[in-house]
Design brief:
Blueprint: H1 2-10, H2 28-39, H3 51-57
């Protein structure tokens, strides 16, 4: 993924949309757990409004 980003920065002829994924994806729960640990935030509170609620509002 980092090679794609570096190529997009250095090669001027690259244009359009590109999709990049991690070679070893993790679940959202694992990602948030690691991020809270790295930022030293002991708890993670749920969002007050989920995306499904936003769709009903608009």
């Amino acid at each position: 993924m980092s090679r794609l980003i570096m190529s997009a920065i250095t090669i001027e002829t690259m244009s359009g949309s590109y999709i990049a994924t991690a070679p070893n994806p993790v679940s959202q729960a694992d990602f948030m757990r690691a991020m809270r640990r790295a930022l030293r935030i002991p708890i993670g509170l749920p969002a007050a409004c989920g995306w499904s609620d936003l769709e009903r509002i608009t």
